[in-house]
């Protein structure tokens, strides 16, 4: 008898869902394989044949097998859980959903499961991170909105806990991140506005603490100086402001003699508010005023506001976040950064 088999008398009937909570032993009885083989198959052990892994995983799914997290943690120190920290408003218009889609694609065919940890407005961003690390309720963590000197990144580095941030910090130690080259985006978008004839350009920036705020400012300033046009950073509003506040700000600026005739937008939501404000001020977007914005969903195109768009793929960002975190959990420490580059495809 093969070492991988158990006596036929102990096997269950294939296709009959057992009573009680399914265990590794349950699957072993149904397949004729040893419990150790079942465990390795569920963890995608490469030394096992793909056919064996597929068969075991299919049966486990059919009978509703779930690993005992507490026992797994006691035995291996692992939870097979990855935590994604999201603010409730990050689900709006698909940012959170796109990240989740990409991360789960990266985790497919692994033993890891994704758990969403909410970050509520009255909670400091460091708190869920501290809870996860101190209680070891996950093997790694993913979060967004990285700040210039982000205390979450500092805490995770100091505790040698696996993580990947969506966005970068300026701590001297390298850390895992996935980011979009916002300086290159703002630079290219500003040059495009200059080419369209704009004489003064503006941008609604993110909160000042966020690292990519610096990148957007640097890109716009460099391009405007090269093109010989004026530029400004919107005052009194930012990407977190209500859309009505952004719209009203744009209306007021557009009605002044020195108002901008071109806007670079860092999000679709701000772009909708900007184009609405320009229209309300009597300007025609695409003719007497111009807008360039990032586009991450099909939602923006439905409104056809006359703006030009540059894609930012959050699903791909999620895949990269998941893949880099798996490598970090496996013990890798080098080359764990990914920078997506903007693709400019102007239609003249």
UniProtKB/TrEMBL annotation:
InterPro entries: HTH_LacI (IPR000843), LacI/GalR-like_sensor (IPR046335), Lambda_DNA-bd_dom_sf (IPR010982), Peripla_BP_I (IPR028082). Residues 22-76 form the HTH lacI-type domain. Pfam families: LacI (PF00356), Peripla_BP_3 (PF13377). This is LacI family transcriptional regulator. Residues 1-23 are annotated as: Disordered. It comes from the Bacteria. The keyword Protease does not apply. GO terms for molecular function: DNA-binding transcription factor activity; transcription cis-regulatory region binding. Keywords: DNA-binding, Transcription, Transcription regulation.
């Amino acid at each position: 008898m093969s070492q991988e088999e158990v006596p036929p008398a102990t096997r269950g009937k294939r296709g009959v869902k057992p009573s009680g909570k399914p265990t590794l032993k349950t699957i072993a009885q149904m397949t004729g394989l040893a419990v150790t083989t079942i465990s390795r198959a569920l963890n995608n052990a490469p030394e096992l044949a793909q056919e064996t892994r597929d068969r075991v995983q299919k049966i486990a799914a059919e009978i509703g097998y779930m690993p005992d997290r507490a026992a797994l943690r006691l035995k291996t120190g692992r939870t097979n859980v990855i935590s994604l920290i999201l603010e409730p408003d990050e689900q709006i218009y698909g940012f959170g959903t796109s990240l989740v889609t990409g991360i789960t694609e990266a985790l497919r065919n692994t033993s890891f499961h994704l758990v969403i940890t909410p970050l509520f407005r009255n909670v400091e961003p460091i708190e869920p991170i501290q809870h996860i690390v101190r209680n070891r309720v996950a093997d790694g963590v993913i979060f967004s909105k990285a700040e210039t000197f982000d205390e979450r990144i500092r805490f995770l580095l100091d505790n040698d806990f696996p993580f990947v941030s969506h966005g970068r910090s300026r701590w001297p130690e390298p850390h895992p991140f996935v980011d979009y080259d916002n300086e290159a985006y703002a630079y290219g978008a500003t040059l495009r506005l200059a080419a369209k004839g704009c004489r003064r350009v503006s941008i609604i920036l993110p909160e000042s603490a966020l690292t990519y705020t610096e990148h957007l400012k640097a890109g716009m300033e460099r391009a405007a100086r090269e093109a010989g046009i004026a530029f400004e950073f919107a005052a009194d509003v930012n990407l977190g402001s209500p859309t009505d506040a952004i719209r009203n700000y744009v209306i007021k600026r557009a009605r002044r003699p020195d108002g901008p005739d071109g806007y670079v937008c860092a999000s679709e939501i701000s772009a909708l508010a900007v184009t609405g404000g320009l229209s309300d001020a009597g300007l025609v977007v695409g003719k007497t005023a111009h807008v360039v914005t990032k586009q991450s969903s099909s939602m923006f195109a439905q409104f056809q506001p006359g703006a030009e768009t540059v894609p930012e793929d959050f699903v791909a960002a999620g895949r990269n976040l998941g893949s880099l975190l798996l490598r970090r959990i496996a013990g890798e420490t080098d080359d764990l950064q990914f920078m997506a580059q903007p693709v400019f495809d102007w239609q003249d």
